[in-house]
Design brief:
Blueprint (H helix, E strand, L loop, with lengths): L1 E4 L6 E4 L40 E7 L2 E8 L14 E2 L5 E2 L4 E7 L13 H19 L6 E8 L11 E7 L4 H11 L5 H9 L5 E4 L3 E4 L10 E5 L13 H18 L3 E6 L10 E6 L13 E3 L3 H8 L4
Parallel strand pairs: 2-15
Antiparallel strand pairs: 1-2, 3-4, 4-7, 5-6, 7-9, 8-9, 8-13, 10-11, 11-12, 12-14, 13-14
């Protein structure tokens, strides 16, 4: 067992690994994605059911149908109507309207296809759609941050099987983004740029190409957790427009291994805020274990060493 601290946050994890259990033995026995039809007449995200979703905001067409489409979330967490200003009534009661936009991006017209089934070209096109929505929503007056995330599987919070991601643009900066920015500001220069240089030669390295490094974090909170960083210091996904094909290569390698595990997972895309400096990155969090009471104190127990997880992602078993 080992105690490890996060690169920049004042946050610890306990690695309590069972060395006798191979990473591939964490495969989830769940057949809910097996034998799905290509088209489900009851699924609101399938072609032909476009009238079951809110009004479409846009689409990418291919061979007479849509390849990706996006629209407002029917059960939105935020609303563009209202006042975006955050106020404090007295010492303890701070409030505002939950102001913003909540959208769904459907990633494939096929009901039986998941994100991990998309090829590199399709993933690159999808990243372009993600970037377009991030940029457009960030221009809404009153928006402080735009969250792009994917929930896959029951343990990750998804409610519909049909592959999709979500975007919430709202009037505050999320807590963990603020914590990252505060932690980074304590260093001279960008600490993640130096982390990248060190992880390039570590046992946690998964894949390195000209512009990106993918690795398992030294103090991984979750089994098989992954970070994808651009090697150049950039703040926003939009600054990587010329390298979406290369980024898709990294993302697909991880997704294919997650398919082997057949597990739920979350993906969060971490842009900087408009006025601060945070090195853009992507965090992929497989949801194989369920946090217990101890984790609510702030320290997670991880049963898979990040070095073993990286070996699995590189092609090991």
């Amino acid at each position: 067992m080992e105690l490890r601290k996060d690169y920049v946050l004042d946050r610890y994890v306990i690695l309590a690994t069972n060395r006798g259990k191979r990473p591939s033995q964490f495969k989830v026995e769940d057949d809910s994605l097996s034998n799905l039809p290509e088209l489900d007449e009851n699924c609101p995200f399938c072609p032909g059911n476009e009238d079951k979703t809110p009004e479409e905001k846009g689409r990418v067409e291919h061979n007479g149908t849509w390849k990706f489409r996006w629209f407002d979330n029917k059960f939105a967490a935020v609303d563009i109507n209202g006042d975006h200003i955050v106020r404090t009534d007295n010492e303890f009661f701070t409030f505002a309207n939950a102001f913003g936009k909540h959208e769904v991006i459907v990633e494939t017209p096929k009901h039986n296809k998941q994100l991990w089934d998309l090829d590199e070209h399709e993933l690159s096109e999808l990243i372009s759609v993600y970037n377009f929505r991030l940029e457009e929503l960030s221009r809404i007056p009153g928006i402080k941050y735009v969250c792009l995330f994917k929930n896959h599987g029951p343990k990750a919070g998804t409610s519909l099987i049909h592959s999709h991601s979500q975007i919430i643009a709202y009037n505050v900066v999320p807590f963990w983004v603020r914590e990252l920015i505060k932690a980074v500001a304590k260093f001279e220069g960008c600490p993640f740029c130096r982390v990248i240089e060190r992880e390039k030669n570590s046992d946690r390295r998964i894949l390195e190409t000209d512009n990106f490094l993918t690795f398992t974090p030294y103090a991984s909170q979750y089994p098989f957790e992954v970070l994808i960083f651009p090697k150049k210091h950039i703040r926003f996904l939009n600054d990587l427009r010329e390298h979406f094909d290369e980024l898709a290569l990294h993302l697909r390698q991880i997704l294919l291994k997650l398919k082997e595990l057949n597990c739920s997972y979350n993906i969060v895309w971490l842009n900087s805020t408009f006025d601060k400096d945070l090195h853009f990155h992507i965090r992929i969090i497989p949801r194989i274990t369920t946090p217990g009471g101890f984790e609510f104190y702030g320290t997670h127990i991880n049963v898979v060493a990040p070095e073993d997880a990286a070996h699995f992602y590189r092609g090991g078993v």
